[in-house]
Amino acid sequence: MKHFYKFIFIFCLSFVGKTQINTYFNNSPCWRTQSMCAIGQTCYTVNVYNYFTNGDTLINGYQYKKVYKKGYSYAQYGAPGPPSQGNPCLSPPPTYFYGPGLSFFIRSAGKKIYGRNVPLTFSSGGGDTLLYDFDLHMGDTLPNTCINPSSSIFKVTAIDSINTLNGWMKQFKLNNSTNYDLIEGMGYKNGLIELMPPNVMSCGWNLQCYSQDNTAYYPSTSVSCMLTTGVQENSNMAQKPLVYPNPSNGIYKIYLLENATKIEIHNITGQLIQSYLQQSNTYEIDLSKESSGIYILNCIDKQGTIRSVKLIKN
């Protein structure tokens, strides 16, 4: 009988080891990413932003971390001499600060990371979608996910590791190139949810910094990656509207997390494109007839407070 109970005890320990709680999102992780998107010939919108976790929520039986976004954007001319007539950079808008606002939800299970309402990806709708599978070994082909729909392109050619507060995180080198680093629990060299080549379209991304508890661990150890955006940040961060998919071909679903009286959409030069009086907390915005580029969605409440989201139309 003693041997029987000993067997059960060892078996249970083995089972617990295989289903241990994942720690990818412990210790307040923060990502700082820079994107550059073409809005005209040699004219780009540069966007520097943070993703960071704050709080939990339960959706369809899954426990998610809430991921918030804040940052700033500005126009940048990328050629010698002044911009030509008609170039968006000839009269660029001022630097635009935004956030923090709720962006999407994320969870981990085993070696996998899943997201919900995730922008920038090829996920369908707002359901639970696979972002990463870090159960990789030498020679493995990177599996198909909504961040990497072209699953046959990348192979694991070297494995290293990074020591963080959450323990050792594997760093996978892909295709023998330093341009293709995949880091366990952290994401990809482009960022947390940014697309992998060749799916980058007219934008490029770069993960500038990843930190835990205000200490950076990638690409090097330094101070916190958190931006000071110059906008007021308070504890009520769930007021910003949720938008997906974003980027899109022109159709966006808008979920207002705070009452608004009016919704406006402007192009990058500030021209009003569409305007609505609020009649619901859910909207479908159609920009399919508009030109590709950057648009700003403004939600205005009774006090005149404006909460803005950048829309990217492919």
| Cα end-to-end separation | 68 Å
Largest sheet: 9 strands, antiparallel
Number of distinct beta strands? 20
Q: Which class best fits the helix and strand makeup? A: mainly beta
Regarding quaternary structure, what we see is: single chain
Label the overall shape. Answer: globular
**Mean pLDDT over the full residue set:** 79
Measured as a percent range, the helix fraction is under 10%
The number of domains: 2
Order of helices and strands: HEEEEEEEEEEEEEEEEEEEE
What percentage of the residues does DSSP assign to strands (E)?
A: over 45%
Rg, Å, rounded: 21 Å
Count of individual helical segments:
1
Taking pLDDT < 50 over at least 5 consecutive residues as the criterion, the unreliable ranges are: 1-21, 231-238
Biggest sheet strand line-up: 6-5-4-3-2-1-11-12-13
Molecular structure report:
The chain is mainly beta. The protein folds into 2 domains: about 200 residues, no CATH class; about 70 residues, Sandwich (Immunoglobulin-like), CATH 2.60.40.1930. The N terminus is likely disordered.
